[in-house]
């Protein structure tokens, strides 16, 4: 499936939290760390989150009312903002999955001040399910532009490197 192809974009009914990793990993060749999949349970969660963010080029947060009510998720976002303040090479992208994004900032209990400020100024994209195909295509194009640039190694490149000893 090509998310930039409007016909196939219309056909998909998957939620963004399922669709996004498929597109980024399987189609665009990015390597993702999904906490629920890639961080082992039982470890020092806060240390694992902070180290994972520090090793990353980009943190993407899919923001919804549920996300902002989850203290673990808010911790991830706050850690990402702090990492961004310490190292400007890290990118942080917010993807709002609800139409009422502005009202989500005014949570009860209130979000940490650093997170409230970040939600207002950080780059963000908007996604809502059931969009027309053109809007969906625009979302994927905008996401592609926001992603860090990288060159996906092709099998032939890896074979050339192994012959030269560069593995």
Automatic annotation (TrEMBL):
Q: Which positions, given as ranges, span the membrane? A: none
**Record-linked InterPro entries:** IL-1_rcpt_fam, TIR_dom, Toll_tir_struct_dom_sf
One Pfam family of this chain: TIR
Keyword check for Lipid biosynthesis, yes or no.
no
> From which organism does this entry originate?
Lates calcarifer (Barramundi)
* A GO term for molecular function: interleukin-18 receptor activity
This chain's protein is named TIR domain-containing protein
Q: Where is the TIR domain?
A: 1-147
**Which SUPFAM superfamilies is this protein grouped with?**
Toll/Interleukin receptor TIR domain (SSF52200)
Give the PANTHER family listed for this entry. INTERLEUKIN-1 RECEPTOR FAMILY MEMBER, INTERLEUKIN-18 RECEPTOR ACCESSORY PROTEIN
Does the record carry Ligase as a key word?
Answer: no
UniProt keyword list: Disulfide bond, Glycoprotein, Immunoglobulin domain
């Amino acid at each position: 499936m090509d998310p930039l192809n409007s016909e196939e974009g219309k056909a998909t009914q998957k939620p963004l939290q399922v669709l996004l990793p498929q597109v980024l990993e399987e189609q665009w060749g990015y390597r993702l760390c999904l906490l629920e999949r890639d961080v082992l349970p039982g470890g020092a969660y806060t240390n694992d989150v902070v180290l994972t963010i520090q090793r990353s080029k980009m943190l993407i947060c899919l923001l919804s009312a549920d996300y902002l009510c989850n203290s673990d998720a808010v911790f991830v976002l706050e850690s990402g903002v702090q990492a961004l303040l310490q190292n400007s090479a890290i990118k942080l992208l917010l993807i709002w999955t609800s139409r009422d994004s502005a009202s989500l900032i005014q949570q009860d209990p209130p979000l940490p001040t650093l997170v409230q400020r970040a939600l207002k100024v950080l780059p963000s994209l908007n996604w809502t399910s059931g969009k027309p195909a053109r809007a969906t295509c625009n979302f994927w194009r905008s996401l592609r532009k926001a992603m860090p640039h990288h060159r996906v190694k092709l099998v032939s490149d890896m074979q050339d490197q192994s012959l030269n000893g560069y593995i």
